[in-house]
Amino acid sequence: MKKSVMFLVFAVLTLFAVNTAFAGAECPQKRATKKAPASLYSKDETGKADAANGKAIFEKKAKPMACKMCHGDKGDGTGKLGGALKPKPRNFACAETMKDVTPGQMFWIIQNGSKGTGMAPFKTLKDGEIWDVIKYIREELMK
Description:
Structural class: mainly alpha
């Protein structure tokens, strides 16, 4: 019995590892995410945001889980859990995918999630923290 359980755990971890190796990095990615309300779509409060705090939230502090778990260390959609998601997590490193995604749209998605994807709403983040994450993504991962 123990050997069967250990084999099953090993098989699942192997699938995650293989899946992660080929996950994300698709560029461009097609998306049909609902557009943010007009009042938020063109909003941009990244000017007064803190990218260092955004990085900390992205890498570790976000609850229920850190952003990098799905989006990956480099924001390219290759996180450990991202390989199991359909569609794959957003590849922030893909300029073609991100060129028309406004900061306000990113805020809307982080706050409310994205229906039909693995992107859950992050209701525990305060507005300022969301802007911090967006600033980090836009300045460090969208290159």
